[in-house]
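Design job #97: recover the sequence.
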């Protein structure tokens, strides 16, 4: 009776609160509804990366046909109206009746999660689209999809709207060749900003072409009046990839290391070269899928490289008995490497496949690379000597850097983390509400200090351009007063001592002038953050201030324009035509030209300001541009300036 009473009371309580929890309240999402409900689970996000992920998923299916030896040509077209078309000359998706679903195999593949030829049998021994959700997810997240299949002498087609077929598969003609063409238009209900980036597409497909030698990949952009055409075809595979990655560098090797062998049903391919710089470039792939977070295959390569180099250095008396071994960082300095594995059932961490988790991949890569590298050193003694000598320099620099870091950190600890004298700190000690503005020069710093909110906004003026950290080791970097001040102000330390929990400001704002020097300083700072404070970028703590370019005044009415187009709109608003009567326009060349009130109102006031949050891609691009414009190689800088000359609008002379 007591139990019955409890049940009755619970039911009455639920009813009183208006909460129903019966069988009818258990929701079952059918077909592709789960994808539309939670798209981020399948493509990572509904932002720019998720949008382009749709292309990669369809393209992967064509690439699987190529890796299986059934396709030699893949074409990707960017069409008007936000449409994408991907065509291959593979076998074509089967169109006959599926025994389990009693529907066409084409419709089954397009409208059913985890349906495809990659879960068993011999259709695909190696596949990038392992989960079998790729093309069906694209179908679910598209406003419209059309598939054309050339197979068994016939041309078949089916169309879909938001994942649901409009009609049955039908034969519309004859076909001499075989293949599949998928045309899709992303759904604006899912993706708020639909704009495909041609450069992003080209960069991704270039990678895939390097990894699949002998396959022609074409890109056609038909969105403008004059179509854009690009094509890739590489016979060299990873050797061609290494040549591309190191094209602007100075290799210290005469021969590029390359190995391509099978080990226990896992195909391992690896290539690397060392150059004179200290930057490391490591790219890893599993079944042609880029794994930016690495995984077991990259771990296996690193382990083989470190062990083999240490063994060789000791056997050749470069390392004496009392000397410590090379660390992983020592042997990777200046390394440009690509590791690619192809395996039947890869285990990825997450649907977006950022990291490979297959344990066997580590063993396979470690064994294959270890054996091949030992042979490489024996056959190429000059290259082996050059690599070991570079590792010795890196080891020496690491020890010096460690001493320099400890000196800086020890000094901070012994002096109670004394902050740099030039820092005008905020009174708040809550990082979540505290902001650090990094200013260019004492003039801008003075205006910012006077105009800021002293409770939450700190100001750190930098004198001139900071050190080019891309060409400097960490010991020299920490000897630079401006960088040391910045490290102390941020509070996280760097390198192995980096501790995100000690970050003193959750907004670190780069505030430089809107001119060439300001852009240069901003690029230098972004490169510094990307190289030594990457977690700040990854967690969204780095911002770029957007100061106005113009001050426009008519009478007592003052407005600010942040772009030329905005300036023109304001002029029209003021009624300015022809001679701009009564309108005064001031072009700001530097933040120092603003008085404290103007700088506060336009650039620092939370109510009015515009801040751009820096993403990893922004930092990567800044790093790439800095390497081109400030690197030692002349040719890439000359090519960049020539290619961008037509886009120059404001040139400081």
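Job complete. Output follows.
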């Amino acid at each position: 009776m007591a139990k019955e009473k409890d049940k009755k009371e619970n039911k009455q309580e639920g009813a009183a609160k208006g909460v129903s929890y019966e069988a009818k309240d258990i929701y079952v999402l059918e077909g592709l509804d789960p994808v539309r409900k939670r798209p981020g689970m399948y493509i990572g996000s509904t932002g720019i990366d998720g949008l382009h992920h749709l292309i990669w998923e369809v393209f992967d299916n064509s690439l699987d046909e190529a890796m299986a030896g059934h396709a030699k040509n893949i074409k990707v077209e960017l069409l008007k109206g936000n449409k994408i078309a991907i065509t291959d000359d593979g076998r074509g998706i089967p169109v006959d009746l599926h025994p389990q679903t009693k529907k066409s195999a084409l419709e089954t593949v397009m409208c059913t999660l985890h349906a495809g030829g990659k879960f068993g049998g011999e259709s695909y021994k190696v596949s990038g689209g392992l989960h079998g959700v790729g093309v069906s997810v694209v179908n679910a997240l598209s406003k419209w999809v059309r598939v054309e299949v050339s197979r068994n002498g016939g041309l078949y087609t089916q169309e879909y709207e938001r994942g649901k077929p409009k009609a049955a598969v039908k034969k519309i003609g004859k076909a001499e060749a075989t293949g599949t063409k998928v045309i899709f238009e992303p759904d604006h209900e899912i993706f708020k900003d639909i704009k495909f980036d041609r450069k992003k597409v080209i960069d991704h497909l270039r990678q895939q072409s390097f990894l699949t030698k002998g396959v022609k990949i074409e890109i056609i952009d038909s969105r403008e009046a004059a179509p854009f055409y690009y094509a890739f075809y590489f016979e060299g595979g990873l050797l061609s990839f290494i040549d591309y990655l190191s094209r602007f560098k100075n290799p210290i090797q005469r021969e590029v290391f390359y190995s391509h062998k099978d080990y226990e049903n896992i195909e391992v391919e690896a290539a690397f070269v060392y150059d004179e710089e200290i930057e490391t470039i490591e790219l890893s792939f599993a079944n042609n899928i880029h794994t930016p977070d690495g995984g077991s295959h990259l771990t296996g390569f690193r382990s083989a490289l470190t062990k083999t180099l240490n063994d060789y250095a000791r056997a050749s008396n470069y390392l004496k008995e009392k000397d410590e071994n090379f660390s992983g960082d020592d042997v990777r300095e200046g390394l440009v490497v690509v590791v690619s594995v192809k395996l039947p059932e890869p285990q990825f961490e997450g649907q977006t496949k950022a990291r490979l988790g297959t344990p066997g991949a580590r063993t396979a890569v470690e064994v294959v690379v270890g054996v091949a590298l030992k042979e490489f050193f024996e056959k190429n003694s000059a290259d082996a000597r050059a690599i070991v000598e570079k590792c010795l320099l890196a080891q020496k620099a690491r020890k010096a850097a460690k001493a320099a870091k400890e000196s800086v950190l020890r000094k901070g600890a012994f002096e109670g983390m004394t902050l740099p004298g030039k820092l005008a700190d905020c009174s708040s000690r809550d990082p979540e509400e505290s902001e650090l503005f990094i200013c260019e020069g004492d003039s801008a710093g003075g205006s910012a200090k006077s105009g800021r909110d002293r409770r939450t906004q700190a100001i750190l003026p930098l004198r001139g351009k900071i050190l080019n950290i891309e060409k400097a080791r960490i010991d020299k970097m920490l000897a630079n007063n401006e960088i040391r001040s910045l490290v102390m102000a941020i509070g996280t330390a760097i390198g192995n001592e980096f501790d995100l929990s000690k970050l003193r400001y959750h907004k670190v704002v780069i505030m430089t002038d809107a001119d060439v020097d300001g852009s240069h300083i901003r690029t230098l700072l972004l490169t510094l953050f990307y190289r030594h404070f990457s977690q700040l970028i990854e967690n969204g703590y780095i911002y770029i201030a957007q100061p106005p370019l113009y001050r426009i005044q008519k009478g007592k009415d003052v407005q600010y324009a942040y772009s030329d187009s905005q300036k023109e709109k304001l002029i029209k608003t003021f009624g300015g035509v022809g001679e701009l009567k009564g309108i005064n326009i001031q072009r700001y060349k530097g933040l120092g030209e603003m008085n404290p009130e103007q700088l506060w109102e336009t650039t620092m006031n939370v109510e009015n300001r515009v801040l751009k949050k820096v993403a990893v891609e922004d930092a990567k691009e800044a790093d790439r541009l800095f390497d081109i414009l400030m690197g030692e190689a002349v040719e890439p800088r000359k090519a960049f300036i020539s290619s961008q000359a037509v886009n120059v609008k404001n040139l400081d002379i």
